[in-house]
Amino acid sequence: MSAVANAKIKVDITQRFDALTVFQNLKYTVAENEFLCILGRSGCGKTTLANLMTGLLKPTEGAISIDDVPVDPKRHELAFVFQEPSLWPWRNVRDNIRIGMEIKKVPPDVVEQRMAEMTELVGLKGFENYYPYQISGGMKQRVAIARAFSVDADLILMDEPFAALDAQTRQKMQAEVLRIWEQRKHTVMFITHSLEESIYRPSGSSY
Ligand SMILES: Nc1ncnc2c1ncn2[C@@H]1O[C@H](COP(=O)(O)OP(=O)(O)OP(=O)(O)O)[C@@H](O)[C@H]1O
Ligand SMILES: [Mg+2]
Fold first, then answer.
1. Which mean pLDDT values do the consecutive 10-residue runs of the chain (207 residues) have?
2. Dihedrals phi, psi of 160, to nearest 5 degrees
3. If you measure from the C-alpha of residue 56 to the centroid of ligand 1, how many angstroms do you get, rounded to a whole number?
4. Ligand 1 near 48 CB (within 6 A)
5. Is residue 2 part of a domain?
6. 4, 5, 91, 123: least buried by Cβ within 10 Å?
7. CATH number at residue 12
8. H/E stretch holding 169
């Protein structure tokens, strides 16, 4: 079987906004549980690609499919981590992490088990009762990452998730996200303008 036949996600699109062609015959595939990094300078179309991947923006030509079904937020489980962590200020860490599972109607016993697993995995154990205003930017992103990895997403889309963090925290979070992905394999598209971030490997890692 060819690599394309094995692909979970197939992208084959052209995207234009009036006279501006952002993508001309952009074609690639993503395998199940692959961690794909998309690197591009400011304004090249990264957020446009993220919007297309969610199915909310329809490509001018071509299509994006997940498991051979045109991408559709109603049919696919899509999870996001954006530059600004989208936490609900009136909910504590625990209740922010569980938002995704609540929406997906995950049974309560599974929610409890995953909550325990994920808070441990992202290093937020002991902070479950803290509110967003009581935690740092890096911790907020950990909440968003825990939320994304706690649902059985077909695709986790990360659009410059660490851009607002300082260099040291950013480097730490890059290692963290790869470690989390190693333990809870999902298909991830990680979008960044940073060459350093796109080729980042924790020292001693095999991937
Ligand atoms: N809805 C839209 N209508 C018209 N033009 C758009 C629209 N969305 C994006 N563009 C244009 O498409 C190009 C790519 O924008 P996009 O936001 O995808 O870039 P980006 O790579 O995410 O940039 P940055 O790194 O600065 O976030 C830009 O020239 C932008 O003006
Ligand atoms: Mg952008």
1. 72 96 96 93 91 93 96 91 89 94 91 91 93 93 92 92 84 86 92 75 61
2. 45, 55
3. 15
4. yes
5. no
6. 5
7. 3.40.50.300
8. helix 167-183
